[in-house]
Amino acid sequence: MIKIKKTSKLLGTVDMHGDIENIDRFKKFINNFDKGQKDSIRVIRYTTEGDPVLRDLEYDGEAIISTFDTRRDKYGKGSINTATCESIEEVETAERTDYLLDDCENIADHTILVIWK
Hints:
Elements: E1 4-5, E2 13-16, E3 19-21, H1 23-35, E4 39-46, E5 52-59, E6 64-69, E7 80-92, E8 96-104, E9 111-116
Parallel strand pairs: 1-3, 2-4
Antiparallel strand pairs: 2-3, 4-5, 5-6, 6-7, 7-8, 8-9
């Protein structure tokens, strides 16, 4: 069973293999994006090996600047990539909801967060 913790002292949202901390902060970011209000958030996803991969999202009211940092991933590329995106797509299936960056320039991984049901 996947646990979703609604509150946390973290500044962003953490996805530890489906156990998500601070989901309310992520939903607030999505809500602010939908309203055109400036906001920023850090989403930390952990690899199978337990290494953190960071995605900082900064929305200025017009576009999203995504900074994807894999330097802490022992088996990853060990790089920082920045891209500009125009929107966030929510893809819902029976098993999960995916939040994806959309209309981006120079981005390899569009996935922000996956919430399993």
